[in-house]
């Protein structure tokens, strides 16, 4: 086995297929904030907890470090363009993107395979990321939706389960 250089480690992690999500919240001034995330996991069923991680260099970190609520949107197979848009830094991610506020004011995106509305619970700095844990307050899903996957640095779609 070889020493895990950052490049080799990233390549090894790329062999693990993940779902693709967009995590959203509101800044203190009310502006919507969101970014594409593939580091999303379940933590606990009782209580219902999920986690995701954010690079410490992210411009969104100050917002997510202080917000009380956020939402995780599991992207459907038809939402590749949205995933790519929210992964970019050089665009207004929200221009022309429809959304509605949750009961807690968090931007909710339509047409997702699943949406989990969360109350921020814990934050753990680890290495070059911060792990954010949230308690799921409300969730919904579409049994008939295909999903977007990330594998080997590329996006793929998977059909709905039979």
From TrEMBL:
Q: Which Pfam families match?
A: Flavin_Reduct
Q: Where in the numbering of this chain does the Flavin reductase like domain appear? A: 13-157
Which GO MF term does the entry hold, naming one? flavin reductase (NADH) activity
Q: Which SUPFAM superfamilies match?
A: FMN-binding split barrel
Sorted alphabetically, the keyword list is: Oxidoreductase
- Kindly indicate whether the keyword Oxidoreductase belongs to this entry: yes
Q: What is its EC number?
A: 1.5.1.36
Q: Which InterPro entries match?
A: Flavin_Rdtase-like_dom (IPR002563), NADH-dep_flavin_reductase (IPR050268), Split_barrel_FMN-bd (IPR012349)
- For the protein in the UniProt heading, the enzyme class is oxidoreductase
The record's similarity note reads: Belongs to the non-flavoprotein flavin reductase family.
Question: Which PANTHER family does this one have?
Answer: FLAVIN REDUCTASE (PTHR30466), FLAVIN-DEPENDENT MONOOXYGENASE, REDUCTASE SUBUNIT HSAB (PTHR30466:SF11)
| Official protein name in the record | p-hydroxyphenylacetate 3-hydroxylase, reductase component
Organism expressing this protein natively: Tepidimonas aquatica
């Amino acid at each position: 086995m070889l020493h895990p250089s950052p490049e080799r480690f990233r390549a090894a992690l790329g062999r693990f297929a993940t779902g693709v999500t967009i995590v959203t919240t509101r800044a203190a001034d009310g502006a919507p904030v969101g970014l594409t995330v593939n580091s999303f996991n379940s933590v606990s069923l009782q209580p219902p907890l999920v986690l995701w991680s954010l690079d410490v260099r992210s411009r969104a970190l100050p917002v997510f470090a202080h917000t009380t609520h956020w939402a995780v949107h599991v992207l459907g197979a038809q939402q590749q363009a949205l995933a790519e848009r929210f992964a970019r830094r050089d665009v207004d991610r929200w221009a022309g993107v429809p959304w509605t506020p949750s009961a807690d004011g968090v931007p909710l995106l339509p047409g997702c395979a699943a949406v989990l509305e969360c109350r921020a619970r814990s934050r753990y700095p680890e290495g070059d990321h911060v792990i954010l844990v949230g308690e799921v307050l409300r969730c919904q899903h579409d049994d008939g939706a295909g999903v977007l996957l990330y594998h080997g640095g590329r996006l793929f779609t998977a059909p709905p389960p039979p």
